[in-house]
């Protein structure tokens, strides 16, 4: 880690920021679905997320 160049660190931080934003959007979407969704839709979403 200490041998990373500033450009490489900036790249990692950029990827981390994008991943965090995507995860936050996904969490918001799931919460909205759970708040107003049908049980079958919630089960389908859970199945999609837990699938490997």
Q: Can you walk through the features of this model?
A:
The longest helix has 31 residues, at 6-36. The chain has a domain at 24-52. The protein has two helices and no strands. It has helices spanning 6-36, 39-50. The model has no long low-confidence stretch (mean pLDDT 88). The chain is elongated. It is mostly helical and 52 residues long. Helix content is 83%, strand content 0%.
Produce a short descriptive summary.
Helix content is 83%, strand content 0%. The protein has 52 residues and is an all-alpha fold.
List the helices and strands and how they pair.
Elements: H1 6-36, H2 39-50
Largest sheet: none
| Overall geometric form | elongated
**What is the N-to-C order of secondary-structure elements (H for helix, E for strand)?**
HH
Structural class call reads mainly alpha
Low-confidence stretches: none
Number of helices: 2
Tell me how many strands there are: 0
SS strand fraction? under 5%
Instruction: Look at the structure and give the mean pLDDT.
Output: 88
How far apart are the termini?
Answer: 30 Å
Quaternary state reads single chain
- Taking Cα atoms only, what radius of gyration do you get, to the nearest Å? 17 Å
Helicity, as a percent range: over 70%
């Amino acid at each position: 880690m200490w041998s990373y160049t500033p450009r490489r660190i900036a790249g990692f931080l950029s990827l981390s920021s994008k991943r965090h934003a995507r995860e936050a959007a996904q969490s918001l979407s799931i919460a909205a679905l759970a708040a107003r969704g049908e049980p079958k839709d919630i089960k389908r979403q859970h199945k999609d997320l837990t699938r490997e």
